[in-house]
Design a protein that fits this description.
Length: 85
């Protein structure tokens, strides 16, 4: 097994953690550029990963906080028209 080395993530791993869920907190703020939110949809938002394993890693995150992917609605699972800016 090979280990993936990502030294730029050390700041995140060793740094202090907020008590709030970043995926719940960030979309409520008016700081999309600072929070790396690149698109807002009706049910989801698209965010770049500040500490990626790969360049350009992004995530599609539902606005509703769910603890399991099985709890997502059909609309939350499909980001319609994600790239219509």
């Amino acid at each position: 097994m090979k280990w993936l080395n990502a030294p730029w993530r050390l700041e995140y791993i060793l740094g202090p953690k907020e008590g709030d869920c970043i995926f719940c907190k960030m979309p409520g703020e008016d700081s999309d550029r600072q929070n790396l939110i690149i698109h807002r949809g009706e049910h989801n938002f698209v965010i770049l990963n500040l500490y990626p394993y790969n360049n350009g890693h992004m995530m599609v995150v539902p606005y509703g906080h769910k603890d399991n992917i099985a709890g997502l609605t059909a609309d939350e699972l499909v980001q319609k028209n994600a790239w219509r800016f």
